[in-house]
Design brief:
The complex is a heterotrimer, with one copy of chain A and two copies of chain B. Chain A has helices at 24-32, 43-53, 61-83, 100-127, 148-159, 172-190, 195-199, 204-220; strands spanning 14-16, 21-23, 193-194, 223-227, 234-238. Chain A is mainly alpha-helical. In chain A, the strands form two sheets. Chain A has a three-stranded antiparallel sheet with strand order 3-5-4. In chain B, the strands form two sheets. In chain B, strands 3-5-4 form a three-stranded antiparallel sheet. In chain B, strands 1-2 form a two-stranded antiparallel ribbon. Chain B has helices at 4-7, 10-19, 27-34, 38-51, 77-86, 94-106, 111-118, 123-131, 155-160, 172-175, 178-193, and strands spanning 59-64, 67-72, 109-110, 135-140, 149-153. The radius of gyration of chain B is 22 Å and the shape is elongated. Chain B is 50% helix and 12% strand. In chain B, helix 6 (94-106) crosses helix 7 (111-118) and helix 6 (94-106) packs across helix 8. By secondary structure, chain B is α+β, with helices and mostly antiparallel strands. The chains are: A mainly alpha, B alpha+beta. Chains in contact: A-B, A-C, B-C. Chains A and C meet through helix 4 of A and strand 2, helix 5, helix 6, helix 8 and helix 9 of C.
């Protein structure tokens, strides 16, 4: 599970929950590291907090919405996966037990990395306007050596790259997360959406997980599922 | 007038532009980039000519080919030449190798076809490779709106790779599977049938 | 001592060499190209730093990545970028800065060590940073099964950050205050006392 698809537009969003108070991104990190039990996180409350903090006038409002929808979708999926252990059978054996002390240690380390990253961002911004001299002499002809091995390697890389976002390393579920982010985003922003319409271009796995997510969201109260007749079309409606 | 020209001394703006140009820059171009009237540019250039005179500096400002150009003071040429002798060429980036391999196996190609193959805008990388004489414009693609330039690898490239010709490189099908080759062909066909795609995802980690 | 260094002022030689290098040039290289002892180079560089300071010139002399580099003054960037019609490279993402921060402070390290520090898989981000030449593989970790590659930040990274070396960055420990660390511990203590023990893998109800 990863939140890599999300940007960092939410870096200033903080949450106050019973189980946790602090930056939202930390909360995600805690859950990812399975150091905070997903069951303890009231997703609905989280959505409410976000909606209250939301500023539609902000220049990056859309990016924030997308990021939030993406990460919220991931949380829902995580929760639904945890609810149905058949999907995840490897949760036994090599599970690391972490003492609160070790956890604090790790989080402190991560916080330092984040601070380092912020400092780096500022430095890069401050140095952005430096353009190097354009008067560099080319090296003497024949001095440059290309490594044929690297050329072949590059060819292999380019020609086997899919044009979709590179997510192979994240496993098939992640594709779904990105789709889910837009699915949920659309549901929240544009009003009712039919399930059939949502999953029309999805493969079976995506369709299944989108369905699970829709159910989970409905269970959370974040959206309503309506079906006029048994086996009839299913509609996702935002909760007012 | 642009904001920055109010606070930054005029000669500074011109110095900076001249540093960033390997070719002579005319008065008109200096004026439009700085937002300053040509009269001001002339005055500033007079200052700079003084500052960058052969007596005062190892960098000299010359008025050549209808423009202004910074270059090394000829008196310093022996040191510069020795430096050039010693200096190790900058190794190429992974992105540069990718652009070269696209062009090697599918060239000549337009810039937008290269970007299409890689899935990211590659214009900056292409420019760098042209500067390094590893790629060159070899013609134009008349079938395309705007007749974009076609790029190919250069003799310099073959020398650098220690190869006599394209035949000296492993064949494409020895590197990737049939399925991939077909997909790449499809992408190329798309690139040449569509208008140049501006919608490439930007190259950001 | 070479001929020209007798007649040409030392700073001029260095200026000329720096104009002709887009990469930082170290003291050793300057010394060997000019035939001057490093001591003289240092003195000349001090002069030049004054001459090419952001207050005095549109060209600035920077001490970055272990060497000296002439660049445009950032105050002139708008004019330079208008002139070059350059599109600024896509800014790095927050994730990219985190990966760079991990590598700067803990590098050289493997991809999996980076992912571990950040708590998320970082391979895609790493690949992009390698493409942008801000990270490079510098060796292999033989102590680990599969001998994974070790990554480190590059000279390009130090140039982009405007840093001479690792020592130019604040230490990790100075980035987070003691009170903050105490607050983290407090929050965690709270969380673990209010919730059922989180050490156990979550159980399905």
């Amino acid at each position: 599970m990863t939140f890599e698809a999300s940007g960092r537009s939410l870096s200033d969003f903080t949450v106050e929950l019973d189980v946790y108070s602090g930056p939202y991104e930390w909360l995600l990190a805690l859950i990812l590291k399975e150091e905070l039990d997903i069951f303890e996180v009231p997703l609905r409350e989280l959505v409410d907090l976000y909606l209250n903090a939301r500023n539609p006038e902000a220049p990056n409002a859309l990016e924030r919405d997308t990021d939030f929808a993406g990460s919220a979708a991931a949380l829902i999926l995580l929760k639904s996966r945890t609810l149905s252990p058949i999907l995840e059978s490897e949760a036994e054996g090599d599970e690391e037990t972490i003492s609160p002390e070790q956890l604090a240690e790790r989080l402190t380390e991560y916080l330092k990395i984040r601070r380092g990253a912020q400092a780096l961002r500022e430095r890069f911004a401050a140095n952005m306007g430096h353009h190097p001299t354009a008067h560099a002499l080319p090296p003497r002809p024949g001095r440059l050596r290309l490594r044929p091995g690297l050329l072949s390697e590059a060819a292999r890389r380019v020609f086997s790259r899919r044009l979709e976002p590179p997510v192979e390393h994240l496993g098939p579920i992640i594709v779904t997360l990105q789709e889910l982010a837009s699915v949920i985003h659309a549901a929240l922003v544009r009003g009712p959406v039919s399930y059939e319409e949502l999953v029309r271009d999805m493969d079976r796995l995506n369709t299944a997980v989108a369905f699970a997510a829709a159910l989970s969201l409905a269970q959370e109260g974040s959206l309503r599922l309506t079906q006029a007749e048994p086996l009839g079309p299913l509609t996702l409606e935002p909760v007012a | 007038m642009s904001e920055e020209s109010l606070s930054v001394p005029k000669p500074h703006l011109i110095e900076a532009i001249l540093l960033s140009s390997a070719r002579p820059v005319g008065l008109g171009a200096l004026s439009s980039a700085t937002g300053l009237p040509e009269e001001d540019i002339r005055t500033a250039l007079a200052d700079l000519t003084q500052r960058y005179s052969p007596e005062n500096s190892g960098i000299v400002l010359r008025n050549v080919a209808g423009g202004y150009l910074l270059s090394t003071n000829p008196l310093c040429a022996p040191a510069v030449e020795r430096f050039r002798e010693d200096v190790r060429p900058t190794p190429l980036s992974g992105a540069a190798y990718e652009v070269l391999s696209c062009t090697l196996y599918h060239g000549p190609l337009t810039r937008s076809a290269i970007s299409q193959l890689r899935g990211v805008n590659s214009d900056a990388v292409v420019r760098n490779l042209i500067d390094r004489s590893l790629l060159a414009e070899v013609g134009t693609d008349h079938a395309h709106p705007g007749s974009p330039a076609l790029l190919d690898v250069t003799d310099e490239f073959f020398v650098a790779a220690g190869a006599a010709s394209r035949e000296d490189f492993p064949t494409l099908d020895s590197l990737v599977g049939e399925e991939e080759i077909a997909r790449v062909r499809e992408r190329l066909a798309q690139a040449s049938s569509e208008t140049p795609p501006a919608e490439h995802p930007p190259e950001a980690p």
